[in-house]
Amino acid sequence: MIISNLNFKNTHIIEPKVFNDNRGLFFESFNTKKINKIFNSKIVQINHSFSKKNVIRGIHLQYKDPQHQFFYLSQGQVKVVLVDFRFKSNTFLKKIYINLSDSNPKIIHTPPGVGTSFLTLKKSNTMMYFVSKIYSPNNELGILWNDPSLNIKWNIKNPTISKKDSSNLLVKDLKFNIFNFKI
Questions:
Q1: What is the DSSP string of 45-106?
Q2: Which of 18, 52, 163, 174 has its CA at a distance of 20 to 30 angstroms from the CA of residue 140?
Q3: Angstrom distance (rounded) from CA 38 to CA 34
Q4: Rounded distance, CA 160 to CA 40, Å?
């Protein structure tokens, strides 16, 4: 397992050792001993999302009782967009684009204050999330996927968006300085 830093502080990409043979592939998706080098907490919830092609999910993060998140794609192909919403960060409101596919497994770790979103590129896509705090809808913050101030290059004309994500907030309507995200 190779753990590399991304351009946001305390944000990582993890490349597991993948074993391929005529049956398919196998890899270790989570190992507490190895992960404790970058993250010293417990995983308390595991979530799955199943999405059809051309779906955009997000941009999501928890602002009350914020959580670390480890996620990987177990089926399909997605374009992940991370946005740093930590007001005191040198990379505040910057973006990172990462392409994930089931044929080249990678695990992404995001700390509290880094929002996640993704666009699905295959007919069937399954994302798994390991999180450090129990999800609560009252603690969640959603930023509009096509917020003009973020200028995210989705390269899709008519994505499928949930009703909830369509009503997410704009960056200009939020006061990020009131959130206490540690850097």
A1: EEEEEEEETTBEEEEEEESSS---EEEEEEESEEEEEEEE--TTSTTTT-EEEEEEETTB--
A2: 52
A3: 8
A4: 36
Q: Which CATH class is domain 2-178?
A: mainly beta
Coil, helix or strand at residue 34:
helix
Cβ distance 74 to 30 under 8 Å?
A: no
| Pairwise CA distance, residues 132 & 71, whole Å | 12
What's the token pair of residue 133? Answer: 């705090």
Query: Which stretches in the chain have pLDDT values below 50?
Result: none
Q: Name the residue ranges covered by the structural domains of the chain.
A: 2-178
Q: Which residue has the tokens 């397992």?
A: 1
Q: 138: which DSSP letter? A: G
Provide the annotated active-site residues: 60, 129
User: Strand, helix or coil at 163?
Assistant: helix
